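PROTEIN DESIGN WORKSHEET
SECTION A - STRUCTURE
LENGTH: 534
TOKENS:
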């Protein structure tokens, strides 16, 4: 811990008031700051009004960080506490106006008991690194929604086919890529690479393999070997290859529905049988039906469990206990686990993703783990995935199927983009996670206020929000038409994930916050218009 970090509170201006303070964590590069009960330095009295209190909180935090050798530009996360949630809109407007570019952190709105007369409190986590300038090398823009019309974006083209005259400020919330700019480190890194690279046939470099191994160790406490890594153009391609490699036509593949719809395609395209193990749903949360899973796994015709962790679309991050029980069932009945963990970097605060293969060597030997940088850094178009298979026998069968289908490797820019993401883009990822968490809180708050018929479920992982629209009283076709034509909302309809998803919708929250607010406003207007016309 540096001296100037330790003395941050002492050196802060006295006008900050008794409730503003800096708390330094044990990690020498991290400082936790709290700006609370804001005092107006001109009058020495409590700032009046939510806007003034928000403004003074941010100014207080700025002063504390500067005394600690950091700045607002180095903040990686903020949390805003309010006594009255009705003040959120005013607070958020002031927050957005005052937080300078780059605006790296997004507020996580919570309700808290604050000191008497205090209306707002802001906590910040910032990075203090004396080896570099307080100003970051790159500006992270999470406010701009790129215009992807005419660029071949699948979901944009689908939206325009459905409604050619859709308003120009509307974005689709469907397919799971982000309506955000790519990490600037990747953009600049690829530009620099292109200055000297020859775009020929390429195999994974030692630097690439090291980046993947280091990421697994650093982010997921998973020690892997370079030879375990099998390239694939996508995790979906891996589902197809693995299903073909480890089962025969007619064999059963277990899926836990509602689930990512390519699971079904991988099974049916290979003439295998879909075996449903529906998740249990109590109206609030989804859990695994272990008794039914045991029954399905005990049937010798069922050879594979195609597992989704974190689960898409319901957003569950499975606990270690849940994973262990699934693993025990599959080991007991010799069912191979194909674990789709593509969203494993996208986990909300308070939850922890456990890579399935880390639970035991026995489980790792019975498993294929599908990973990619595509969801993490918005690189789906690079078609670069890392399928990690510790068991050499399984690995050989998997790669043999790939070779029989003509697969020979990945693209040179995909390798490089993944390498840059895993070595340089963790700060961007942390700020993305704050944005997604914030968007979830904003969506949930505004839906409860404006469209209470719709239920927004707690989101543990992914950036995909699962919502229940059944209380609107529409069948699936009517709901889809209503959202497209009357609300100009383009989600992924729940029924595509299986019959258990009928009446639900999946919304992509990897987008600027104002687009989430706009979406709720359109939904509320459309619902109210329909009510008024009855």
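SECTION B - SEQUENCE
RESIDUE ASSIGNMENT:
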């Amino acid at each position: 811990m540096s001296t100037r970090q330790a003395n941050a509170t002492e050196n802060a201006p006295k006008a900050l008031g008794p409730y503003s303070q800096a708390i330094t964590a044990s990690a020498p590069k991290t400082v936790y700051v709290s700006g609370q009960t804001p005092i107006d330095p001109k009058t020495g009295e409590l700032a009046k009004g939510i806007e003034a209190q928000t403004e003074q909180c941010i100014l207080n935090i700025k002063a504390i960080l500067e005394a600690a050798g950091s700045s607002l530009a180095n903040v990686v996360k903020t949390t805003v506490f309010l006594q009255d949630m009705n003040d959120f809109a005013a607070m958020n407007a002031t927050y957005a106006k005052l937080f300078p570019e780059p605006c790296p952190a997004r507020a996580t709105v919570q309700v808290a008991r604050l000191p008497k007369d205090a209306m707002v409190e802001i906590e910040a986590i910032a990075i203090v690194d004396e080896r570099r300038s307080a100003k970051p090398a790159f500006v992270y823009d999470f406010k701009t929604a790129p215009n992807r019309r005419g660029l071949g974006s699948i979901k944009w083209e689908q939206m325009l086919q459905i409604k050619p005259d859709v308003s120009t400020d509307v974005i689709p919330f469907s397919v799971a890529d982000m309506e955000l700019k790519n990490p600037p480190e990747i953009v600049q890194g690829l530009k620099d690479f292109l200055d000297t690279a020859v775009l020929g046939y390429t195999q994974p470099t030692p630097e690439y393999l090291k980046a993947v191994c280091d990421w697994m160790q650093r982010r997921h406490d998973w020690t892997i070997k370079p030879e375990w890594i099998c390239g694939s153009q996508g995790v979906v391609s891996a589902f197809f290859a693995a299903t073909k490699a480890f089962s025969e036509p007619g064999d059963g593949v277990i899926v836990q529905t509602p689930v990512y719809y390519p699971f079904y395609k991988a099974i049916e395209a290979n003439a295998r049988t879909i075996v449903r193990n529906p998740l249990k749903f109590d109206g609030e949360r989804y859990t695994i039906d272990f008794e039914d899973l045991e029954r399905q796994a005990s049937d010798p015709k069922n050879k594979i469990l195609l597992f989704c962790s974190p689960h898409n679309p319901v957003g569950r991050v499975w606990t270690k206990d849940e994973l262990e029980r699934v693993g025990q069932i599959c080991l007991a009945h010799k069912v191979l686990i194909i674990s789709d963990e593509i969203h494993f970097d996208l986990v909300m605060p308070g939850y922890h993703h456990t890579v399935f293969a880390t639970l035991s060597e026995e489980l790792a030997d019975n498993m294929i783990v599908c990973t990619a940088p595509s969801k993490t850094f918005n690189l789906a178009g690079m078609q670069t995935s890392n399928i990690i298979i510790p068991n050499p026998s399984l690995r050989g069968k998997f790669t043999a199927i790939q070779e029989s289908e003509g697969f020979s490797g990945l693209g040179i820019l995909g390798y490089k983009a993944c390498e840059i993401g895993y070595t340089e883009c963790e700060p961007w990822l942390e700020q993305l996670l704050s944005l997604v968490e914030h968007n979830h809180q904003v969506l949930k708050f505004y839906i409860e206020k404006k469209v209470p018929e719709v239920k927004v479920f707690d989101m543990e992982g992914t950036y995909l929000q699962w919502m229940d629209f059944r209380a609107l009283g529409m069948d699936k076709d009517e709901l889809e038409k209503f959202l497209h034509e009357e609300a100009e909302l383009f989600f992924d309809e729940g029924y595509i994930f299986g019959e258990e998803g009928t009446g639900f919708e999946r919304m992509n929250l990897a987008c600027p916050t104002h687009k989430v607010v706009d979406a709720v406003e359109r939904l509320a207007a459309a619902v109210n218009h329909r009510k008024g016309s009855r």
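SECTION C - NOTES
The first helix runs from residue 3 to 6.
The chain has a mean pLDDT of 86.
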